[in-house]
Structure formats: structure tokens, C-alpha cells
């Protein structure tokens, strides 16, 4: 059985709180969805705003490989001739091959929201679908609140579908608009609907009861051949059915013909693109496409995964373009350590006592407040240390830092730093002394220290100029100790090519930050040398 995917990220997804796609964003998302193999793209509601009109203008000249563009609207207004309905006339100007119309199924909505009669609503549905059939290849009818309408007045809800079918709708999409329906109700209601209409059925589920994906899948099991949803489940209130789950479930679990199986590999990137453009952080534990959807932390899990990934993975992450992550923490076993050492490119015998020693050290440090997830660079330095592979690029001799505040002026900080590098490094660069003693200012003490230490070390290691501190997080670990509490500082750095995290722990926030800063720079120097060696070898 073949299932058509109808994406409404650009219309219903844009109804998510805080989301506003630009025209350029919409076009980029359309291209990505076309590449993914989605069949329909609902680009917006032309009667709503000029940006949506501009989108339909912009895509007129575009040749999509897979998707058909759909423009969305309501049925005509009550007691208005269709030729005089502004919304419908604007819709026609979009000149899309598909029009999607939502109409009322629930008597409550007809009477309270539309403030018209049940009879007039049926005429609105009939007039709109039959009229639009003259202008488009396909007219899709979205039966808004169908399940609530069915529960309130079954006869009437079914009648609205029959009218849309008689008017020529190519697909009748049953919408769980308020997202309050449960999977068993969807099944029972669709079973009944099939006895009354012959047109292909679709499903449009909202996630207010956290079952939008489940509702979509049961609808397909009951015969729906058209599934609507959004990337990352974006949408008003709690969102829509998440196509990043719906699609792989249909393809990989239910074995249905949906999009080509090899295209699933693009799903991870599409999900990240939409997250980026929507300005909403990508949810890390989102099924299939979350960064941590295949992240293994518990030692028992990692041990088993190494023996056979099927033990703790429901699918091969690469099928959806994702990847496996093994983390390091106090919950690790030797398998996590071995796996990470391998990832770092070090050779180690599986039975080496070093593995247990490293594991013990991690557990001790995490008990003191260290946290190596997110600080993989600090973990690598620890491993290097214990394997005798940590190079001493510099030696820290001392620092001072003070914060100055005069009257009403903004405060600022000053730091001085003393470092020493190996003699041969200084000589190679033509410096008489292997020492450097520098000072710098910053808005706060950590910025002043960061600037001062960089200034000191850049003299000997110019590549450090590329390194930037991109994130700085502080966590107080034992608040009850008041101002003596232990502080954990996590720093994220980047050199434009890579990102890495380091951690420092101390009752003194400056010292914790200092440790994390120094490790960040040291890690960068290790990576630069490794890269140079690889380049020479290749
Ligand atoms: C379930 C869904 O997701 S439906 C899509 C919801 N999305 C949106 O609303 C986003 C885009 N909306 C908009 O830009 C605006 O609401 C517009 C342009 C559509 C309408 O704006 P306005 O004319 O100012 O009306 P307003 O938004 O206050 O009220 C909605 C109107 O639509 C009417 N309406 C609602 N559903 C339907 C329908 N299926 N058929 C016809 N009219 C409808 C309401 O009766 C109301 O009209 P009235 O005030 O004349 O009675
Ligand atoms: C059509 C639509 O968006 C809904 O009923 O939720």
C-alpha cells in the first residue's frame, strides 16, 4: 500500500508559538522536503498574509522533483457568494496544483464559531470544493474537528464528509484538531466512516494528548492513505504529528511504500534544518532524529551494544542519518571507556589494567563534581594523561585577577598570567625566554583571564588565535554550603572547524573556570598537532 505524505510545516507548523519563517526559510524548507521525497507541501494560507502570497509567487517558477504545492484556506464565508469571497479569490491567484480547504464538522463550531446554520455550513463545503475543482488538479478537504464532531453529532459529521465527497474532493482528511482523541477512538470512528464514504481518507492529528503519531499510525492501519504532519512536530499548542517519527515508523516498522527508503537518511538533516530556521532548539531526545536518540550511557547497555547493536537500538541509526553516541560518566563501565579510547584513535588492549584505572578515576572525579558528558575534551586529556600520551605544551606559573568598580561606573576586571613553554618551542620561534607574563582586561574576571592566557600563549602557539569560547555554564553543586559551595564550570570552545567542551571544579569559581580554560587551549594544541601529523602521513 502506498501512503502519501502531506507536510504542513510551513502552514500549521508556523502556528507554533514563537515561530515565524521568512520567505527564504520557507523556500529552503520546501527544497529540503522535496529532496526528502515528501509528496505534498502546504505552503501557507494566501488569504492570511502577504508573505504566504509571496511564497506561492516564488515557487511558481520552481520545478520540484517530488512535491506538489498546496495552498490552504477555509471554506467560503457564510451567506457570501463564492465568486465574491475574498479568501477564495486570493487562494485561486496562488495557482497551485492543489488546494486544501478546511470545513467545519462539529455542530458546536458551526453554531458558535461560524454563527451560521448546519445547512449553510454544508452548502459552504459543497460550493467551495466544487468551485475549486475547476481551478486545480486536486482539492483536499480537511474535516476540522472531525472526531469531536463525530462524538457530538455523528450524523452531521458524516454528512459533511459526504457533501465534500459529492462536491469532488480528492481526499477527505479527518482532523483531530484539538488533539484530544485517543488511538482506540480513531480506530473505531474510521471503521464507521469507511462505511459511508468511498473517497481516499487522510489523517491530520494534533499532539495535545501526546498521541498524534500513534493516532496517525492507527489511522493508516484502518485505511488512511494520506498522512499530514510537520517536521519536528511543530505546530500550535502541543504541535502536530511529527513526520520525523511518522515517516520512519511507516517505512521501517510497517513496511509501507511512503518515501524511498534510502531517502530516510536525509531525515536527521531535515529535522536540524527546520529546528535551526524555526529558532526552536532541536529536542535532543526526539525519537529517530534527536542528537541523543541513539546515545548510550549505562555501562550495561554499552557492553551489549558492542556485542550486537540490536540489544539496545530499535533501528540502525544510520537508516535515518543519525549516529550512535557513547557517553562517559559515573554510570560507565569498561566498555564505555574502551569505546571512547578507540574513538580517540588510541590503541589499547581490551584487558589492559589501564582501562579499569581510567574508569575508577572518572568515577572518583564525578563524585567530586566533575561531569564528563559535554566535556569530552577534558576526558581525552585525562585518558592521555593515564596512557602517558599527554604532552606538556605549557606550564602554568601563576595568575592574579581583580575586579574594579569606581562609583557609578561599570565594573571591569584585570588579570595577569605567567606561563612557561618548553625551551625548544621558544627557541624554534626565536624567543629568548620561554616565559611570558601578560595582562589583559575584560568585562568580568573570567573574560580577563581568558584574554590574558591567550595573549601569553599565542606568542608561542599562534593557532590559538582561532579559538573562541562559545559557551560558559556554571553550576553550584552543594548549595547548602553557601558561599563555600563547590562550583562546576563547563566551557565550550570552537576554532571554526571543531567544537569541544572542558570542565573545571573548585570551591572557587575563578579557579574552576581557569582549569576549564587551560584544558580547552591544551586540547586545541593536541588536536592541531594530530591534524598536522595526519596531513603529513597522507
Ligand atoms: C484548524 C486550523 O488550523 S485552521 C487555520 C488557523 N490558522 C489561522 O487562523 C492563521 C491564519 N489566519 C488569519 O490570517 C486570519 O485569521 C484570517 C485572515 C484567516 C481571518 O481574519 P479575520 O477576517 O480578521 O477574522 P478572524 O481571524 O477574527 O476570525 C476568523 C473568521 O474566520 C471564520 N471561519 C473560521 N472557520 C471558517 C470556515 N471553515 N469557513 C469559513 N469561515 C471560517 C470565522 O467565522 C471568523 O469570521 P467572522 O469574524 O466573519 O465570523
Ligand atoms: C486543518 C487543521 O489544521 C486542523 O484541523 O487542525
UniProtKB/TrEMBL annotation:
One of its GO terms (molecular function) is (R)-citramalate synthase activity. Residues 3-268 form the Pyruvate carboxyltransferase domain. Keywords: Amino-acid biosynthesis, Branched-chain amino acid biosynthesis, Isoleucine biosynthesis, Transferase. One of its GO terms (biological process) is L-leucine biosynthetic process. PROSITE patterns: AIPM_HOMOCIT_SYNTH_1 (PS00815), PYR_CT (PS50991). Coiled coil: none annotated. Pathway: Amino-acid biosynthesis; L-isoleucine biosynthesis; 2-oxobutanoate from pyruvate: step 1/3. It comes from the Bacteria. Transmembrane segments: none annotated. It catalyses: pyruvate + acetyl-CoA + H2O = (3R)-citramalate + CoA + H(+). Its EC number is 2.3.3.21. Pfam families: HCS_D2, HMGL-like, LeuA_dimer. PANTHER family: (R)-CITRAMALATE SYNTHASE (PTHR43538:SF1), ALPHA-IPM SYNTHASE/HOMOCITRATE SYNTHASE (PTHR43538). Belongs to the alpha-IPM synthase/homocitrate synthase family. This is Citramalate synthase. It comes from Thermotoga petrophila (strain ATCC BAA-489 / DSM 13996 / JCM 10882 / RKU-10) (Thermotoga naphthophila). The lineage of its organism: Bacteria, Thermotogati, Thermotogota, Thermotogae, Thermotogales.
Amino acid at each position: 500500500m502506498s501512503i502519501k505524505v502531506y507536510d504542513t510545516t510551513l502552514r500549521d507548523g508556523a502556528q507554533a508559538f514563537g515561530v515565524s519563517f521568512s520567505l527564504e526559510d520557507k523556500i529552503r524548507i520546501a527544497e529540503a522536503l522535496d529532496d526528502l521525497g515528501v509528496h505534498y507541501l502546504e505552503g501557507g494560507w494566501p488569504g492570511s498574509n502577504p508573505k504566504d502570497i509571496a511564497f506561492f509567487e516564488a515557487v511558481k517558477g520552481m520545478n520540484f522533483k517530488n512535491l506538489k504545492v498546496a495552498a490552504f484556506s477555509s471554506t467560503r464565508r457564510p451567506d457570501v457568494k463564492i465568486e465574491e469571497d475574498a479568501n477564495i479569490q486570493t487562494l485561486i491567484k496562488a495557482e497551485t496544483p492543489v488546494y486544501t480547504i478546511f470545513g467545519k464538522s462539529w455542530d458546536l463550531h458551526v453554531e458558535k464559531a461560524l454563527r451560521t446554520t448546519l445547512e449553510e455550513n454544508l452548502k459552504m463545503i459543497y460550493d467551495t470544493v466544487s468551485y475549486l475543482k475547476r481551478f486545480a488538479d486536486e482539492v483536499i478537504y480537511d474535516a476540522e474537528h472531525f472526531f469531536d464532531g463525530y462524538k457530538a453529532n455523528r450524523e452531521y459529521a458524516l454528512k459533511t464528509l459526504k457533501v465534500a465527497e459529492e462536491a469532488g474532493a480528492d481526499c477527505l482528511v479527518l482532523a483531530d484538531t484539538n488533539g484530544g482523541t485517543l488511538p482506540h477512538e480513531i480506530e473505531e470512528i474510521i471503521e464507521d466512516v469507511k462505511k459511508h464514504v468511498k473517497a481516499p481518507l487522510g489523517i491530520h492529528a494534533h499532539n495535545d494528548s501526546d498521541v498524534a503519531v500513534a493516532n496517525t499510525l492507527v489511522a493508516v492501519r484502518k485505511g488512511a492513505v494520506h498522512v499530514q504532519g510537520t517536521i519536528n512536530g511543530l505546530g500550535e499548542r502541543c504541535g502536530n504529528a511529527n513526520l520525523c517519527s511518522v515517516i520512519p515508523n511507516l517505512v521501517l516498522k510497517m513496511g509501507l511504500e511512503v518515501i524511498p527508503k534510502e531517502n530516510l537518511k536525509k531525515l536527521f538533516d531535515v529535522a536540524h534544518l527546520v529546528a535551526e530556521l524555526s529558532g526552536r532548539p532541536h529536542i535532543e531526545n526526539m525519537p529517530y532524529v534527536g542528537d541523543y536518540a541513539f546515545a548510550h550511557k549505562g555501562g550495561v547497555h554499552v557492553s551489549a551494544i558492542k556485542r550486537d547493536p540490536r540489544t539496545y537500538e530499535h533501528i540502525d541509526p544510520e537508516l535515518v542519518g543519525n549516529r550512535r553516541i557513547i557517553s562517559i560518566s559515573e554510570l560507565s563501565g569498561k566498555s564505555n571507556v574502551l569505546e571512547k579510547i578507540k574513538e580517540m584513535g588510541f590503541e589499547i588492549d581490551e584487558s589492559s589494567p589501564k582501562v579499569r584505572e581510567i574508569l575508577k578515576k572518572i568515577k572518583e572525579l564525578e563524585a567530586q563534581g566533575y561531569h564528563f558528558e559535554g566535556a569530552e575534551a577534558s576526558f581525552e586529556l585525562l585518558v592521555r594523561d593515564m596512557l602517558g600520551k599527554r604532552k606538556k605544551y605549557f606550564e602554568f606559573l601563576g595568575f592574579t585577577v581583580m575586579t574594579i568598580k569606581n562609583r557609578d561606573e561599570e565594573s571591569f576586571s584585570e588579570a595577569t598570567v605567567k606561563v612557561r613553554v618548553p625551551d625548544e618551542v621558544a627557541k624554534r620561534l626565536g624567543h629568548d625566554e620561554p616565559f611570558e607574563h601578560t595582562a589583559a582586561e575584560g568585562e568580568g574576571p573570567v573574560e580577563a583571564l581568558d584574554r590574558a592566557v591567550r595573549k601569553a600563549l599565542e606568542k608561542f602557539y599562534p593557532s590559538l588565535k582561532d579559538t573562541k569560547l562559545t559557551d560558559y555554564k556554571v553550576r553550584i553543586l552543594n548549595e547548602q554550603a553557601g558561599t563555600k559551595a563547590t562550583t562546576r564550570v563547563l566551557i565550550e570552545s570552537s576554532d571554526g572547524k571543531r567544537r569541544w567542551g572542558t570542565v573545571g571544579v573548585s570551591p572557587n569559581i575563578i579557579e574552576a573556570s581557569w582549569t576549564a580554560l587551560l584544558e580547552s587551549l591544551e586540547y586545541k594544541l593536541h588536536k592541531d598537532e594530530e591534524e598536522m601529523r595526519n596531513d603529513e602521513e597522507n
